Amino acid sequence: MPSLILSTAARYLLPLLLLFSVFLLLRGHDEPGGGFVGGLVGAAAFVLVGIAAGVDQARRLLRVDPRAALAAGLLLAVASGLPGVALGRPFLTGWWVTLPVAGGAKLGTPLLFDLAVYLVVLGAALTIVFALMEE
Amino acid sequence: MIAAVASGFALALAAPWIVRRAPAHAGWMLALAPAAMTAYLAAQVPAVAAGSIATAATAWIPTLGIALSFRLDGLSLLFGLLITGVGAVVTVYAGGYLAGHPQLGRFFASLFLFMASMLGLVLADDLIAMFVFWELTSVSSYLLIGFDHDRAEARSAALQALLVTAGGGLVLLTGLLLLGQVGGTFAVSALIAHAEAVRGHVLYLPVLVLILVGAFTKSAQVPFHFWLPSAMEAPTPVSAYLHSATMVKAGVYLLARLAPVLGGTTVWTALVLPVGAATMLVGALLALRQTDLKRILAYSTVSALGALTALIGAGTPAAVEAAMVFLLAHALYKGALFLVAGAVDHETGMRDVSRVGGLRRAMPLTAAAAGLAALSMAGLPPALGFLAKELLYEAVWPGPGGAAWALGVVVVASAALVAVAGIAGVEPFAGPAHPTPRTPHEAPPSLLVGPALLAGLGLAVGLAPVWTAQPLVASAAGATLGAPVTLALKLWHGFTPALGLSVLTVLAGATLYATRSVLRRDAAWLDRAGRLGPAAWYDWAMRALLAAARDQTRLLQSGYLRTYLLVVVGTTVAVTGYALATRVGVRLPTALGDVRSYEWVLAAAILLAALGAVRAPSRLAAVAALGAVGYGIAVVFILYGAPDLAMTQFAVETLTVILFVLVLYRMPRFARYSGTAARVRDALVATAAGGLMTLLLLAATGFSLERRVSAYYAESSVPLAGGRNVVNVILVDFRALDTLGEITVLAIAGVGVYALMRLRARTR
Questions:
Q1: In this complex, do B722 and A29 lie within 8 Å of one another by their Cβ atoms?
Q2: ipTM for the complex?
Q3: Which of A29, A35, A43 faces B729 most closely, judged by CB atoms?
Q4: In terms of DSSP H, where are the helices of B438-583?
Q5: Nearest CA in chain B to A36
Q6: Domain extent at residue B621
Q7: Domain residue ranges of chain A, discontinuous segments joined by +
Q8: Parallel, antiparallel, or unpaired: how do β-strands B54-61 and A106-108 relate?
Q9: pLDDT under 50 in chain B at which residues?
């Protein structure tokens, strides 16, 4: 039974939850958070839409197949380990650059790796949930 | 050299793409690469013949003393030229033979995977690297035999070849590891320097036997010979390349390569020579009985491999020289005959020699190539095969290294092979024409060039051995013997006993050929004997294995989730509990310590929720109660300063409840199915599991943990990884490889659930 309150709330909660999940991902290196919990929150956002407005709507809003997110995450995880190898260090050795903007923001391969974790968690959770919802 | 091997693997990746772009000319284009490698290797011949040895190495696992080291000496060069040269010919041939096949790209990918592996195998100087390439050839052979995977025969033949050769490979690995231990190094070139110590070592016999089993399975020696005729299910170019010219000779190569280390002892000769001689005889006799062109050639290949093994087993300079010449001659004529067999099959639609005939009129050029190759196979002058057979007879002539019984075996087998040469190379083309499923035409150029080239080479080398093969063969024999040899190949040896035996062999072979129809009709007892042979043992072993697997699956995999849970939880409790009680011991705390009031409240809430989950009247209520337990635990994490854990726990709990609800949706109405006894049992198991976890936790907190580890992480987090959240830094930096493994498992689990759901949806 579709609930008006839930579907209306889901419309507004989706962007907020997604924003929050990215926030968790980005702050993870220094504060509580990270790719795993970020991915779970992101998945929860789409699950909420799926429950409120149907799985088709959730799929449309996600735009990509969750399995693609999953595969992209795994590829990215492996790719983020390669710069270390290219520099003659062990696989997955972190490599950082300091950007000359915003007071020296840092970018590094561990961030990419965390993004990969985010994508895999999101992709795996949604693959399972969507499959169950469509059954 | 590393580049040559690596480019082969790169070609395997690129081949499907090239085939898609230019399907009509893919064979010719792709053949350029092996042809170029052949030219490169041929250019090395003068230097190698003069005694220089090229090496190249790159570190692989330095801590174990394993390197990707390559070494190009005479033996490697001879094999390398065969691999790349026959490889180029077969590539052109396959482009025509499988023209228009939708899977041509996959075929070439497997073929080049094999070529690169085989090249790596013969160039490798490191035993472990050699073994890896060795197994890669088994794997690619599996893919190629089973190329036509819609047919059950092709699949079972591929599996048979894989099980026999890869099983032998495992034995070989044990032998190589032992050899590395005994000799103190994995480098063959260094082992040769320690040969005396290896041969005198107490482990010499186990090492030798293990390595020989590996070599014998790969080179189809009795009693492992049965996989090779079955492997004829492969497309003909594969049979010509892998199962006659190259892969099956890997075992012979290994024997020759390790002869300077392990050979020269009485045990070596006593083990290798009889097996080779038996294989030579069995292969030649069984070949006479076949009518399928490819099986005839397969059995005669078994025979030739036996001869090579026996010669290396004898180990005298004359024997090793004969082996190298025979190796070259056999690769040329057998490759050509296989390709001819494929052309006959391709043009007529059948390859039963008793039912095709008179093809010389329709396929004159193919017939000429077949005749030339058969000439060499029969050992008639002036082909290279004649030289090889003369040397063979001289090597086994009674005297040093020879023996009367060995000479007898060689004469009988050679006579049979003369007849087989006639059956395979002459019979389809001679006599009156028979009707065939397809009207025969001359083969297209791509199918002609290969046999003509190989057969022509056999003739050219036979006519002018000094200019062509002599330096190569001499340096290959030198590498096997561990000492330089001076070899003078010539067609005319004078009136020697060997010449007399040659004449005798040809006469006997011609008689056998003339009476072939009688043999086919009246020697059926050979087939019956064959049915009791190793192929039957293999079938029996496979059936026994499958039956054992079926029975244990029925026992362990009942298909009931409740049984699995019971077994898993019960086993964990029993095993962990036993270790905990006997090894660790638990000290129960005597005082509760300082417990805050809100902690009491929280504990009570968690307990109540757990009780609610057990007593719930519906599944939904149980799931909700379980979720409450999870949230309670998350609050505990917060109270004890683990916000990361708490957040993750909250999110996981939420998603778990949603997943449960989605699944529950589809389940039948809730009811009590189990009786009181079952429920009591379940309660006991659950209580035991919970109690065990409690004890485990108490034991863990009682331990004085290695403080340095957590202190190291806490201190190095910022300076080494630039992050203040230690948990996250450990996950994505310090222990990123573990995380990579975990997300891979997660991904597989996700795809697995998806596949199961889809499968269910389709079967309904």
A1: yes
A2: 0.90
A3: A29
A4: 445-463, 470-481, 497-514, 516-522, 525-531, 534-556, 561-579
A5: B648
A6: 596-671
A7: 4-134
A8: unpaired
A9: none
